[in-house]
Each structure stands twice: as structure tokens, then as C-alpha cells.
Design a protein that fits this description.
The protein has 67 residues and is α+β, with helices and mostly antiparallel strands. The protein contains 3 helices and 2 strands, in the order αββαα. It has one domain.
């Protein structure tokens, strides 16, 4: 199986090195998109505040339902 074929598998990556030190990573475009989308979300202060607020609301609703 070639490197490009194995990259079609989920969460497969190759790390290249030079003189025993990691230099680059090869990964599928889908994994790259997932990583960059996650970084965009994590770097958005407003979006992260909204997510935290929603999690608190869900948590409080679960507590009310369990009573």
C-alpha cells in the first residue's frame, strides 16, 4: 500500500525527520480540514463563550430533569 493510499484511512499521519528530528507531517486533507476547523473554533473568543454558555444551560436542564 502506498503512502497516499494509507492516508485515505482515518487519522493516519506520517512524520518526516532529518537527523532524528521531526521536520514535517503528512496527513489526509480531511484530517487537515478537521484540525484547522477546530483551531478556528478554539481561537474565537465569542464562539467559545457561546459553547460554554450552552454547556452550562444543558447541564442545568439535566439537573432539573433528574429531580
Amino acid at each position: 500500500m502506498t503512502i497516499l493510499k494509507t492516508l485515505e484511512l482515518p487519522e493516519v499521519e506520517y512524520i518526516t525527520s532529518s537527523e532524528g528530528k521531526p521536520k514535517s507531517v503528512i496527513l489526509s486533507i480531511e484530517d487537515w480540514k478537521r484540525i484547522t476547523e477546530t483551531l478556528k473554533i478554539l481561537s474565537s473568543r465569542e464562539l467559545m463563550q457561546s459553547i460554554r454558555r450552552a454547556k452550562r444551560q444543558l447541564s442545568s436542564k439535566k439537573e432539573l430533569l433528574s429531580l
